Amino acid sequence: MSFPTFGASTTAEEVAAAFCNEIQGKNVLITGTSLNSLGFETARAIARFANLVIITGYNAERLRLSEAAIKLELPTANIRCLDLDLSSLAAVRKAAEEVNAYPEPIHVLIHNAAATIGPFKLTVDNLESQIATDSIGPFLFTKLILPKIYAAKTATYTPRVVALTSIFHEYAQGIDFADIRRPNPEKYQPFQAYNQAKSANVLVMAELSRRAGDAIHAYSVSPGVALTNIQLKPESIDIFIASGIITPDGKPNTDNFTWKTIPQSAATTLVAAFDPRLDDKSGAYLDDCNVAEIAGPNILDAELPRKLWSTMEKIIGESFVL
């Protein structure tokens, strides 16, 4: 079968329409699906064709608003809400127990959720909020629901795990392993913490792919730059303005950055989740709906994925063996 060529301006709906046969019958779990987010747009585009879309969030009221918005547009969509606070390892374990009690397998797991880019904040587990929510919590969640992911494997289908990263991973100054385990507020810089967390997602997906072999396909995705609710949170907006990403009046800085719409930004996630042309490219990094070169020189060390995996195992207190 011939599929279209996608690029930076492709929308999530266009990708979903192209891969409607691949989406049909699939059960997809997407983290971070509040309104005006990439996760919500991803869920909305998939829900038109999927058997089941599981949307998650740490705020139950906002999660139900997302469910209602999708059902209003697509009354026949099968949407299930899952309360999931990725900043708490105990909450992750509780949510994973719920998922493992589902009767359905999980064909695609999409790690879309991200913490607020704001002042230094420790989680209940004494971890820095961004690395905990963006990377460590998803690492544990993936580990715990492996039985459900493995259950989707057939002779003709391999389940997928997708994690969102960022074009800004190239600015990360390596991985500070000591700081991940014992965060130092004096060293904290909001965007360096963000860049490190997004770099970690590239590394974990590459290592997951290597360890899983043919059992699971894993990909990291850069959605590009879009104006979502994460930039407009009260604790974030001043930081984005100071960085020049957002103008003083709260608008996107189009002079220094190329912006996408939310539907355009969500498109690459759907490519990673469903494009059959990626079957032999597990571990790849995607940008603008295509496989791309990893830009960050500080994350190309072959030993980094293994070291990060081991560090996260120590933090969660469990071995992640595939």
From TrEMBL:
Keywords: Oxidoreductase
Pfam families per record: adh_short
Recorded GO MF terms: oxidoreductase activity
Keyword Oxidoreductase: yes
Record-linked SUPFAM superfamilies: NAD(P)-binding Rossmann-fold domains
Xref: InterPro entries: NAD(P)-bd_dom_sf, SDR_fam
Signal peptide (UniProt feature, chain positions): none
Family designation: Belongs to the short-chain dehydrogenases/reductases (SDR) family.
Listed name of the protein: Short-chain dehydrogenase/reductase family protein
Species, as recorded: Mycena venus
